[in-house]
Protein backbone atom coordinates (compact mmCIF):
# COMPACT_ATOMS: atom_id res chain seq x y z
CA UNK A 1 0.00 0.00 0.00
CA UNK A 2 0.99 3.64 -0.34
CA UNK A 3 1.41 5.60 2.87
CA UNK A 4 2.51 9.06 3.92
CA UNK A 5 5.56 7.80 5.76
CA UNK A 6 7.07 11.15 6.73
CA UNK A 7 5.01 12.17 9.77
CA UNK A 8 4.70 15.19 12.06
CA UNK A 9 3.16 14.87 15.51
CA UNK A 10 0.16 17.15 16.07
CA UNK A 11 0.84 17.28 19.81
CA UNK A 12 4.55 18.12 19.99
CA UNK A 13 5.71 18.76 16.43
CA UNK A 14 8.25 15.93 16.32
CA UNK A 15 8.93 14.59 12.85
CA UNK A 16 9.79 10.96 12.13
CA UNK A 17 9.72 8.36 9.37
CA UNK A 18 7.21 5.54 9.57
CA UNK A 19 9.26 3.83 6.87
CA UNK A 20 12.14 3.51 9.35
CA UNK A 21 10.29 2.81 12.60
CA UNK A 22 7.12 1.05 11.49
CA UNK A 23 5.36 2.89 14.33
CA UNK A 24 2.38 5.22 14.04
CA UNK A 25 2.95 6.65 17.54
CA UNK A 26 5.19 9.68 18.00
CA UNK A 27 8.61 8.53 19.25
CA UNK A 28 8.86 11.60 21.48
CA UNK A 29 5.49 11.88 23.26
CA UNK A 30 3.64 8.71 22.25
CA UNK A 31 0.71 10.50 20.62
CA UNK A 32 -0.95 8.72 17.70
CA UNK A 33 -2.20 12.00 16.21
CA UNK A 34 0.03 13.00 13.32
CA UNK A 35 -0.11 14.39 9.79
CA UNK A 36 1.74 13.34 6.67
CA UNK A 37 4.25 15.91 5.41
CA UNK A 38 5.18 14.27 2.12
CA UNK A 39 3.42 12.47 -0.69
CA UNK A 40 2.25 8.89 -0.41
CA UNK A 41 4.80 6.24 -1.31
CA UNK A 42 4.59 2.49 -1.78
CA UNK A 43 5.88 0.65 1.27
CA UNK A 44 5.98 -3.13 1.79
CA UNK A 45 8.88 -3.50 4.25
CA UNK A 46 8.78 -3.40 8.05
CA UNK A 47 11.61 -3.07 10.57
CA UNK A 48 12.66 -6.56 11.66
CA UNK A 49 15.67 -8.21 13.27
CA UNK A 50 16.61 -11.86 13.29
CA UNK A 51 18.27 -13.15 16.46
CA UNK A 52 18.94 -16.89 16.52
CA UNK A 53 21.14 -16.97 19.65
CA UNK A 54 18.76 -19.04 21.78
CA UNK A 55 18.08 -21.46 18.94
CA UNK A 56 21.79 -22.03 18.32
CA UNK A 57 22.31 -23.15 21.89
CA UNK A 58 19.36 -25.53 21.77
CA UNK A 59 20.34 -27.10 18.45
CA UNK A 60 24.00 -27.31 19.40
CA UNK A 61 23.21 -29.37 22.49
CA UNK A 62 20.91 -31.81 20.66
CA UNK A 63 22.03 -35.44 20.51
CA UNK A 64 20.31 -35.99 17.15
CA UNK A 65 19.91 -33.94 13.97
CA UNK A 66 17.15 -31.88 15.60
CA UNK A 67 16.48 -31.09 19.27
CA UNK A 68 13.53 -32.72 21.01
CA UNK A 69 12.02 -29.27 21.62
CA UNK A 70 12.33 -25.86 20.03
CA UNK A 71 12.03 -26.68 16.32
CA UNK A 72 8.59 -25.08 16.08
CA UNK A 73 9.88 -22.01 17.93
CA UNK A 74 12.69 -21.59 15.40
CA UNK A 75 10.33 -21.92 12.45
CA UNK A 76 7.92 -19.44 14.05
CA UNK A 77 10.67 -16.83 14.44
CA UNK A 78 11.90 -17.36 10.89
CA UNK A 79 8.40 -17.10 9.43
CA UNK A 80 7.72 -13.93 11.41
CA UNK A 81 10.93 -12.39 10.10
CA UNK A 82 10.33 -13.18 6.42
CA UNK A 83 6.67 -12.12 6.75
CA UNK A 84 7.70 -8.63 7.87
CA UNK A 85 10.32 -8.15 5.20
CA UNK A 86 9.38 -6.55 1.91
CA UNK A 87 11.33 -5.05 -0.97
CA UNK A 88 9.83 -1.58 -1.43
CA UNK A 89 10.94 0.97 1.15
CA UNK A 90 9.27 4.36 0.90
CA UNK A 91 8.82 3.99 -2.84
CA UNK A 92 12.38 2.72 -3.40
CA UNK A 93 12.85 -0.81 -4.74
CA UNK A 94 15.46 -2.90 -2.97
CA UNK A 95 17.51 -5.72 -4.42
CA UNK A 96 17.18 -9.43 -3.73
CA UNK A 97 20.66 -9.43 -2.23
CA UNK A 98 20.02 -9.44 1.51
CA UNK A 99 21.84 -12.57 2.68
CA UNK A 100 20.12 -12.50 6.08
CA UNK A 101 16.73 -12.77 4.40
CA UNK A 102 17.91 -15.39 1.91
CA UNK A 103 19.45 -17.43 4.73
CA UNK A 104 16.21 -17.22 6.72
CA UNK A 105 14.25 -18.60 3.77
CA UNK A 106 16.78 -21.41 3.40
CA UNK A 107 16.94 -22.27 7.09
CA UNK A 108 13.17 -22.75 7.13
CA UNK A 109 13.44 -25.27 4.31
CA UNK A 110 16.54 -27.02 5.69
CA UNK A 111 14.99 -27.60 9.12
CA UNK A 112 11.96 -29.20 7.47
CA UNK A 113 14.12 -31.25 5.12
CA UNK A 114 16.37 -32.61 7.87
CA UNK A 115 13.31 -33.50 9.92
CA UNK A 116 11.91 -35.54 7.01
CA UNK A 117 15.11 -37.40 6.15
CA UNK A 118 14.88 -41.07 7.24
CA UNK A 119 18.62 -41.22 7.91
CA UNK A 120 20.32 -37.80 7.84
CA UNK A 121 24.09 -38.05 7.74
CA UNK A 122 26.71 -35.92 9.44
CA UNK A 123 27.01 -33.59 6.45
CA UNK A 124 23.32 -32.72 6.71
CA UNK A 125 23.56 -31.93 10.41
CA UNK A 126 26.76 -29.92 9.96
CA UNK A 127 25.17 -27.89 7.18
CA UNK A 128 22.11 -27.15 9.31
CA UNK A 129 24.29 -26.01 12.21
CA UNK A 130 26.46 -23.91 9.92
CA UNK A 131 23.43 -22.18 8.43
CA UNK A 132 21.95 -21.63 11.88
CA UNK A 133 25.27 -20.24 13.13
CA UNK A 134 25.50 -17.53 10.50
CA UNK A 135 22.02 -16.82 9.17
CA UNK A 136 21.34 -13.76 11.33
CA UNK A 137 24.70 -12.29 10.24
CA UNK A 138 24.09 -12.99 6.56
CA UNK A 139 26.61 -15.84 6.38
CA UNK A 140 25.04 -18.04 3.73
CA UNK A 141 26.95 -21.12 2.50
CA UNK A 142 28.03 -21.18 -1.14
CA UNK A 143 26.07 -23.39 -3.58
CA UNK A 144 28.90 -25.92 -3.81
CA UNK A 145 28.74 -26.47 -0.04
CA UNK A 146 25.13 -27.70 -0.04
CA UNK A 147 25.00 -31.48 0.61
CA UNK A 148 23.01 -33.57 -1.90
CA UNK A 149 20.24 -34.35 0.59
CA UNK A 150 19.54 -30.62 0.93
CA UNK A 151 19.63 -29.53 -2.72
CA UNK A 152 15.82 -29.44 -2.79
CA UNK A 153 15.72 -27.28 0.34
CA UNK A 154 18.02 -24.73 -1.29
CA UNK A 155 15.91 -24.81 -4.44
CA UNK A 156 12.61 -24.30 -2.63
CA UNK A 157 14.11 -21.49 -0.57
CA UNK A 158 15.13 -19.75 -3.80
CA UNK A 159 11.59 -20.15 -5.15
CA UNK A 160 10.04 -18.71 -1.98
CA UNK A 161 12.37 -15.70 -1.99
CA UNK A 162 11.99 -15.05 -5.71
CA UNK A 163 8.20 -15.30 -5.60
CA UNK A 164 8.05 -12.76 -2.77
CA UNK A 165 10.41 -10.47 -4.68
CA UNK A 166 8.54 -10.96 -7.94
CA UNK A 167 5.33 -9.68 -6.37
CA UNK A 168 7.05 -6.46 -5.31
CA UNK A 169 8.76 -6.20 -8.70
CA UNK A 170 5.36 -6.40 -10.38
CA UNK A 171 3.90 -3.79 -8.03
CA UNK A 172 6.84 -1.43 -8.52
CA UNK A 173 6.68 -1.89 -12.28
CA UNK A 174 2.99 -0.96 -12.35
CA UNK A 175 3.74 2.10 -10.23
CA UNK A 176 6.43 3.14 -12.72
CA UNK A 177 4.01 2.63 -15.61
CA UNK A 178 1.35 4.71 -13.85
CA UNK A 179 3.85 7.49 -13.12
CA UNK A 180 4.92 7.44 -16.76
CA UNK A 181 1.31 7.92 -17.88
CA UNK A 182 0.82 10.75 -15.39
CA UNK A 183 3.94 12.51 -16.64
CA UNK A 184 2.79 12.14 -20.24
CA UNK A 185 -0.61 13.56 -19.41
CA UNK A 186 0.92 16.67 -17.84
CA UNK A 187 2.97 17.57 -20.92
CA UNK A 188 1.42 20.36 -23.01
CA UNK A 189 1.38 20.62 -26.79
CA UNK A 190 4.24 23.11 -26.88
CA UNK A 191 6.51 20.79 -24.92
CA UNK A 192 5.60 17.94 -27.25
CA UNK A 193 6.49 19.99 -30.31
CA UNK A 194 9.86 20.96 -28.83
CA UNK A 195 10.63 17.35 -28.00
CA UNK A 196 9.84 16.30 -31.57
CA UNK A 197 12.19 18.94 -32.95
CA UNK A 198 14.98 17.68 -30.68
CA UNK A 199 14.55 13.98 -31.45
CA UNK A 200 16.88 13.93 -34.43
CA UNK A 201 19.65 15.82 -32.65
CA UNK A 202 19.61 13.66 -29.50
CA UNK A 203 18.93 10.17 -30.81
CA UNK A 204 22.54 9.20 -31.54
CA UNK A 205 23.89 10.13 -28.11
CA UNK A 206 21.02 8.92 -25.92
CA UNK A 207 21.95 6.87 -22.84
CA UNK A 208 19.81 5.03 -20.31
CA UNK A 209 18.82 7.02 -17.23
CA UNK A 210 16.85 6.16 -14.11
CA UNK A 211 13.67 7.10 -15.99
CA UNK A 212 14.62 5.38 -19.25
CA UNK A 213 13.19 1.89 -18.73
CA UNK A 214 11.45 -0.37 -21.22
CA UNK A 215 8.27 -1.27 -19.36
CA UNK A 216 7.09 -3.89 -21.86
CA UNK A 217 10.49 -5.59 -22.06
CA UNK A 218 10.56 -5.73 -18.28
CA UNK A 219 7.12 -7.35 -18.21
CA UNK A 220 8.37 -10.01 -20.62
CA UNK A 221 11.38 -10.83 -18.46
CA UNK A 222 9.19 -10.79 -15.36
CA UNK A 223 7.01 -13.43 -17.00
CA UNK A 224 10.10 -15.49 -17.83
CA UNK A 225 11.14 -15.21 -14.19
CA UNK A 226 7.75 -16.54 -13.14
CA UNK A 227 8.00 -19.45 -15.57
CA UNK A 228 11.47 -20.38 -14.32
CA UNK A 229 10.39 -20.16 -10.69
CA UNK A 230 7.38 -22.38 -11.35
CA UNK A 231 9.60 -24.85 -13.18
CA UNK A 232 11.92 -25.20 -10.17
CA UNK A 233 8.90 -25.45 -7.87
CA UNK A 234 7.42 -28.23 -10.04
CA UNK A 235 10.64 -30.16 -9.48
CA UNK A 236 10.10 -29.67 -5.73
CA UNK A 237 13.26 -27.58 -5.66
CA UNK A 238 15.44 -30.57 -6.53
CA UNK A 239 17.86 -28.76 -8.84
CA UNK A 240 21.56 -28.05 -8.70
CA UNK A 241 22.21 -25.31 -6.10
CA UNK A 242 23.90 -23.23 -8.81
CA UNK A 243 20.61 -23.30 -10.74
CA UNK A 244 18.77 -22.09 -7.64
CA UNK A 245 21.33 -19.33 -7.16
CA UNK A 246 20.97 -18.27 -10.79
CA UNK A 247 17.23 -17.85 -10.26
CA UNK A 248 17.87 -15.50 -7.34
CA UNK A 249 20.50 -13.54 -9.26
CA UNK A 250 18.18 -13.16 -12.26
CA UNK A 251 15.50 -11.64 -10.04
CA UNK A 252 18.07 -9.31 -8.50
CA UNK A 253 19.26 -8.25 -11.97
CA UNK A 254 15.71 -7.38 -12.96
CA UNK A 255 15.33 -5.30 -9.83
CA UNK A 256 18.60 -3.54 -10.61
CA UNK A 257 17.26 -2.66 -14.04
CA UNK A 258 14.12 -1.13 -12.55
CA UNK A 259 16.22 0.87 -10.09
CA UNK A 260 18.83 2.15 -12.54
CA UNK A 261 17.55 1.73 -16.09
CA UNK A 262 20.85 0.07 -17.04
CA UNK A 263 20.31 -2.12 -20.14
CA UNK A 264 23.08 -4.52 -19.09
CA UNK A 265 21.08 -5.45 -15.98
CA UNK A 266 18.06 -6.40 -18.08
CA UNK A 267 20.24 -8.36 -20.48
CA UNK A 268 21.90 -10.18 -17.58
CA UNK A 269 18.49 -11.23 -16.25
CA UNK A 270 17.54 -12.53 -19.70
CA UNK A 271 20.79 -14.47 -20.01
CA UNK A 272 20.43 -16.10 -16.60
CA UNK A 273 16.85 -17.14 -17.33
CA UNK A 274 17.89 -18.73 -20.60
CA UNK A 275 20.27 -21.13 -18.85
CA UNK A 276 19.04 -24.75 -18.62
CA UNK A 277 17.46 -26.06 -15.42
CA UNK A 278 19.69 -28.86 -14.13
Structure write-up:
Helix content is 57%, strand content 6%. With 278 residues, the chain is mainly alpha-helical. The chain has two domains: 2-42, SIR2/SIRT2 'Small Domain' (2-Layer Sandwich), CATH 3.30.1600.10; 44-184 and 211-278, no CATH class. A three-stranded antiparallel β-sheet has the order 3-2-4. α6 (151-186) packs parallel to α9 and α8 (215-234) runs antiparallel to α9 (241-260). Residues 183-214 have a biased composition (Acidic residues). This is TFIIB-type zinc ribbon-containing protein. Residues 183-217, 259-278 are annotated as: Disordered.
Layout of helices and strands, plus pairs?
Layout: E1 2-3, E2 6-9, E3 15-17, H1 18-21, E4 34-36, E5 41-42, H2 53-60, H3 71-84, E6 88-89, E7 92-93, H4 99-116, H5 122-134, H6 151-186, H7 189-202, H8 215-234, H9 241-260, H10 263-273
Antiparallel strand pairs: 1-5, 2-3, 2-4, 6-7
Helix pairs in contact: 3-4, 4-5, 4-6, 6-8, 6-9, 8-9, 8-10, 9-10
Notable features of this structure?
SIR2/SIRT2 'Small Domain', 278 residues, mainly alpha, 57% helix, 3-stranded antiparallel β-sheet
